[in-house]
Amino acid sequence: MIEDYETIDEFLTRHAGDVEEAVRKAAAQEIMPRWRRLADDEVDQKSGPHDLVTDADRQAELHLTEALRLLMPGSEVVGEEAVHDNPASYEAIRGDAPVWIVDPVDGTRQFVRGETGFCTLVALARHGTVLASWTYAPAQDRFATARRGRGAFLDGVRLHAGPPEPGRDLRVATSHPDYTTDDQKRALLGLRVPGVAPRPCGSAGLEYLDIALGRVDATAFSWEAAWDHAAGILLVEEAGGIHLARDGEPFRITGGNDLPFTTARDAATARQVAALLAGEPA
What we know:
It is a single chain. The chain is of the alpha+beta class. The protein folds into 2 domains: 5-158, Fructose-1,6-Bisphosphatase, subunit A, domain 1 (Fructose-1,6-Bisphosphatase, Chain A, domain 1); 170-277, D-Maltodextrin-Binding Protein, domain 2 (3-Layer(aba) Sandwich), CATH 3.40.190.80. 34% of the residues lie in helices and 26% in strands. It has helices spanning 5-31, 55-71, 80-85, 108-112, 182-189, 204-213, 226-238, 267-277, and strands at 43-48, 51-54, 76-79, 99-106, 119-126, 129-137, 142-147, 151-154, 157-158, 170-174, 196-200, 218-221, 242-245, 261-264. The strands form 3 sheets. The protein has a 7-stranded mixed sheet with strand order 3-4-5-6-7-8-9, with helices on both faces. The longest helix is centred in the N-terminal third of the chain and has 27 residues, at 5-31. InterPro entries: Inositol_monoP_metal-BS, Inositol_monophosphatase-like, Inositol_monophosphatase_CS. Its EC number is 3.1.3.25. This is inositol-phosphate phosphatase. Mg(2+) binds at residues 80, 103, 106, 228.
């Protein structure tokens, strides 16, 4: 049983590569053999036509759940599909045990359409703090990792997001309208000002990776599901970015955030986007 952060740090020193291998193996065995080969009966809707689940999601999550628990006895797993079946299992994020946060296929719509813009997300957290993350885009052969205080990397190359280029419109990926309340829709309208270029997001995990790479400047997301955000916000933090809710407080994976929230490649951009979401002048 993991007892404290120092022990988790030791675990990560020994086993971060084993976690990466588990993610790669889940993708190789459960996701990629189904990519562009899905039968109709392997795709279901959850809450609506934009909220899909496939056999790849289910089987990859089961694969990762078993592998990660074996790597760290006593840890919990919060996976998107398991929480859909048992919402109470989400509470493990707020518990005392280390918790693996898993999105087996982030960007399921893109996966179903046969596109390459999907990824597998795994984060390790405790007491609401994300300590390490793994982001794997198997169809693009890209693997990003982050470890708190140790940096963010894409295929072994360290990431530094840096500030946006002066004089260019801010590129901001935003929530799909289907996942916003009326209040959140009004908040997102605050981004429709000169100097900001909002657009609908794709896979959240890959949007975060593009922020860490400096290809996207910020996000404005209206939902809190930790499996979509935990891996990415650490990746961006370790590349030099920050995240802020609409009230100016950092985003909490345990919930209770003033939404929408933003994650941005630098502090000035995050403050600007958060202010616009709050209805304040840029």
